[in-house]
Amino acid sequence: MKSINKRTQKDYSLAFKLAVVDQVEKGEMTYAQAQNHYGIQGCSTVLVWLRKHGRLDWSNGTPRFLSKGRTMTKVKTELTPEQRIKALEKELEDTKIKAEFFEAVVNVLEKDYGVRMVKKPKGKSFKKKPS
To answer: Strand, helix or coil at 119?
Structure first.
C-alpha cells in the first residue's frame, strides 16, 4: 500500500508575510510568482496576506493598474526620518564621488592636454541682470 504524504500547514512569521507583501506591492513580482518563488502552498495565501497587510485595495483581486503590467512606483510611501536621513546621506556620498571624478577629469585635461578649465566663481550667476 502506498503511503500518502499529507501536506502540513506552514506557519509564516509576520516579518516574512510583510516582506512578501512589500515585494508584490512594489511590483517586483506578482502574488502568483511570490507564491511559486517562496514555495507557499495555498493558492490564495499571498492574496490573503495582501488583503490583510497591504496598502492597496486587494478586495477584488489584483488592483487594476498592477494588472496591466505597471509597477507600484506610482504609490508614494512616507519615509521615516531615519530612512530619509539614510537616503540623503547616500545622495550626498554619490554627489561627493561625482565631484571627485569631475575634479580628476579637469586635472587630466589640464596636465595631459594643456586645456585650461575656468571654474565659475562661487556665488556668481551667469544670468544677465535686468537693465
So the answer is: coil
